[in-house]
């Protein structure tokens, strides 16, 4: 197993499947009366959150605690040199506390890379979302959810057609999913207004479209990305939230364009009425709540494999 | 203190070995005459095989004083310049306070004279406070003791077309030039790196080439329209080179510079998220690097300028988006140019002398720099061991700062000696403190 999880590209096909298979085993345990495993007893996991994200933080906390790790949560909003303690000093503090793993959420793209490459901390670094770069555990839980619904819960996603819709330009979820789902064999289509697709996207392992209706009929799953209203009028990326909804939001009419077996996903938090209507969000084929519960199992698997895997022992 | 000095076996511009006699601050004689005219007591230095170039002239140096003496001072920055083979630097205006008055430019000029490492020619700000709104007192700076001829809001683009037009017009009165930092501000809000495949993958806001090229295109047209002189700072894209080449074919008075780092490094380095590679304009693609090299070779780009930009450690030892932009350049410039231009066969040493001394001196209207290595000329020169290789060690630099992108990289060539008006500022690769009593140099330099 790899030492750090910074990007979905860090996982090859074998390693990605190992995470998903491990998560499946751990999820089975969740149904038992005693949910805790002794695996990481005596290990220290630090949640280092420079940016508010209650749901991701809680998910990692629950995952670490179910593996019996000691969990320290460190919220340090605002991190740059001008705003207070530097990333380096925070890292050195965690190192002094003996962190075996640092789960880092940061508003700056690449901050987890800096932590992992700097030598400031010895522990494994897990990227829990960095700027507009990546969010690899979100992609893993999305892949896990997709596999349960589209592949019987085993193997990869070979040939499954996944459509990801929305603000790809600013979305770390889209970046990680594009990489991981492609690794797992899925055919990924990114749909967005041209202003919200990054320059150079033709080099990504995906296809792109500006036409949501056309893409839906060929989708086994559609993943709606959160679109901040500020990207519209003020940001100038699209004329208005209303126009965005009309062209790129999913509602009941568009839901009907999907094949019957297709599922609807959203990484949360949702902007009901912008990228997704309430009817679709609460639809029986929406798996948004299940994504959250799968998140804990997937994050348990990541921590388990990073901290108790054989490669980890060799590094130590 | 200036003993007559005979440099024996030196190769001017990489040509045939000869002797140079330095006396009273000038090259007194060359060849057989140098030996014949050497007075009794002349020190002889065996410099066989070393290449002599006219002292290098940097059009773009951030000395940080006044205001950020924690990053660099006039003294430390000019010492670094001497170590890099420079005998003149142009000190950029974005200090604190900004060099937008005669008082500040005279202060920087005086600090340079007192330090004694190389000539310091302050660049004046185009607009008050480099805010882009109102013209600074350009005439007062031109008439001051600092004799400012280059004006720049570097770090900020003079983006307002009317302000730029007026500035270009106004400096015609004293043969000034506007050195533009070409960056369309709205296209580069929050920009972190070159916009391309990699910026999309890394999730870093892109700095598109068009944001530079749009301003370069506008400015060459403005310069032509008002019949003035434009200099484009740190050109970084293939498109800019093409526009400038076109402007020159029209006969317009447009010059341009390229930095050493843009001649050697590409945006791939941003994948490390190490802010040592964060710079403005950003490192570009391999195709841009090739176009810049070709532009420098064919003269579309006139000069190499370092954009030496010192920053304290804490401003680089952080996450990418929080880090300062800029790189050290003075002490590695010649080596980088050797690797990018000489070792690739794009320029010979005469070409390097032209692009790093003659042309920059002409752009800055300097009369005693960038001169030929012939009898009667000022003894501003640098001796280079082109066969040496060295590994760049940040802690070994004369600059107060450590932010070199070439850390631990092996580069060709080594500055063995620098002479400022006949006085060695660097000898045997070691800085020679100005004004210190010392014996006349004798023996062999390597």
Please, could you describe this protein's structure?
The complex is a heterodimer of chains A (316) and B (446). Chain A has 316 residues and is of the alpha/beta class. Helix content of chain A is 40%, strand content 14%. The two termini of chain A are 14 Å apart. Chain B folds into two domains: 5-52 and 375-444, Urease, subunit C, domain 1, CATH 2.30.40.10; 56-363, Alpha-Beta Barrel (TIM Barrel). Helix content of chain B is 28%, strand content 21%. Chain B contains twelve helices and 20 strands. In chain B, strands 1, 2, 3, 4, 5, 16, 17, 18, 19 and 20 form a ten-stranded mixed β-sheet that branches. Chain B has a five-stranded parallel β-sheet with strand order 9-10-13-14-15. A three-stranded parallel β-sheet of chain B has the order 6-7-8. In chain B, helix 2 packs across helix 3 and helix 5 (161-170) packs across helix 7 (209-226). Classes of the chains: A alpha/beta (316), B alpha/beta (446). The A-B interface holds A 79-82, 86-88, 106-111, 113-114, 117, 130-134, 172, 175, 198-201, 203-204 and B 192, 195-206, 208, 272-274, 314-315, 317-322.
